[in-house]
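Need tokens for this chain, all 380 residues.
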Amino acid sequence: MSKHKRSLIFYAILIIILSAGVFLTANNDHWYNATIVRIDHAKNSPTDQYRNGTNDRYYEQLLTGTVKNGPFRGHTASLKNEYSASGVFDEPYQPGDEVFLSAVSSESGTVTGSISGLKRDKYVAALCAAFILFILFIARGRGLLTLLSLSVNIGIFWYSLILYTSGINILLLANLLVFSFTGLSLLLVSGWNQKTFAAICSTLISIAITLLLFKLVMTFTGGVDYAFMEYITSPTDLPEIFMAQIMIGGLGAVMDVAITEASAMSELISKDNEIPLRNLIQSGRDIGHDIMGTMINVMLFTYISGSIPLIILKMNSEIRLHTIILWHMPMELYRFLIGSIGILISIPVSILISLLFFRRIGRIGSIGIIRSIGKIRRFL
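Here are the structure tokens for all 380 residues:
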């Protein structure tokens, strides 16, 4: 059987399996204990405006639907929902949506209750299926290893949260997570080779230097006002939680810079083992400058995307953007700036570590290392 035919059979089987998973998730109502209702009809009417001093419009929905599971399966449901135009804390529902109900009761065959949320698992399953299909189609074997590293990292992260709720210090857990995420992700995706170990060393050293600088700044500036952190119930470990957020938040971007630099240096030296050190450092510097802008923008968009609803709500209340950023989002601003500093630090660190691994280790000794550091410093 030809390679092309084996690939077609593989993707056909994969599509069938993924489609079956999505179909199963879309029809798993009997898996849930909560009552699920499919909305059949929705009628919207405006209620009032400027509630709680905000310039936001509110609407009331009268919904009718059909119960999908439980003792009232097949019965008609009559529900009410209220939502705002901004949609920050609520949402409208459309015919075809499926919602969870709480405080369910039945009178004269009609089910009533409170809507506790939209059933989204089928959409998540469809997105997961599309992600798996695309990553395997584009990256093939590397894509499979990436999926494996993602699964392992999610499992480790989930277990660490369980350990935190049982009383383990979150900063200790964050340190262990940085080591495990860095090692597992790079080893699984890039393989067991010098390039991977250079990237692992570069990532860990860059994160350590970034945190050291952050601690020094905290020591001499009076620290951060942790009152701006939201959804915090325990006030005893806010500095540790914030530090853990910084370590894990910037890890992905720093790993990306480190593996890019290590791969480029490895490729340059493999093509020309006698390439002058000056040219090697210049190439690493140029590559670092090329990826620096995109990585910093990735950090910016990552942190700002989760705050878009909050920004829109406050701007609708006539709060200026710079006031929102400075007084309502300072923690996101801190995380972005510290993560960006970590990216910048990782460029010279990755160049130096790559030189030690690929070109000069075992050949130039301590004197050569010092000379290499001096050359990098002059270039940067």
